[in-house]
Amino acid sequence: xxxxxxxxxxxxxxxxxxxLDTIINWGLGADSTAYLAKMLTAPDAHGIDLDRTAVLYMxxxxxWPETRLLVDEFMLPLxxxxxxxxxxxxxxxxxxSDGITVLDDSRRPEQLFARGPxxxxxxxxxxxxVPQVAGTRKCSLWAKGDVGDWWLKQVFGGRPxxxxxxxxxxxxxxxxxxxxxxxMPGRSGEFPLIDWGWNRQRCESYLLERFGVHWPKxxxxxxxxxxxxxxxxxHMERCAPTRTSRARCCAWSTRR
Length: 256
What we know:
Layout: H1 15-19, E1 22-25, H2 30-39, E2 53-58, H3 65-82, E3 85-91, E4 100-106, H4 120-127, H5 138-156, E5 161-164, H6 172-181, E6 187-190, H7 192-196, H8 200-211, H9 225-228, H10 232-239, H11 243-254
Parallel strand pairs: 1-2, 1-5, 2-3, 5-6
Antiparallel strand pairs: 3-4
Helix pairs in contact: 2-8, 3-11
């Protein structure tokens, strides 16, 4: 697969970074999107100062087209309307020492960047491996966790901050796992969906009520983890889109 040439960029440390004390991880799926949309109805009531907050997204390079279309259509206008700082990151290469690229860092984001200099697909092709089905999802840690942590360490340098994660109420185990494994100095994790008792169904229902669309799960198009979790029928249906969803994907492609 041919590679595209990008100009690497490092996160610029500024007075705006000094003011940051809250990071919201956004994976684009129903859970974290429901939290973000709900929080933005009344940030103060949810304990969020938007002037001191950044939303963080790590591009894997293989997100489903309909997810990207929904983000462009519904969520980016919401971020612009509220002046939310949206930071989009991606890896530069196989090794963490290759660094990362800041694809965009703006309070008026105009587009979601689908990929960066080096995608998860590029990496798995280059080393001759496949996505992991069982155990720790190392591909997700490689493409998302390591990238976000690299940026966080550069920006915060050990000073206190809170990181809000969109684990739903059925994922208490993930909260416990985060609390056990998190080693970053100054970081404290928060899990509002668990605290609210919002499971996946509640998140999907909220987005349907709010935007009038079904918001799908976010994962790479070639991911096999969904099948291992009993979601094979939904995955196969997604692989064979209806005429309507195919038209929406084509509409997204022509806009790029």
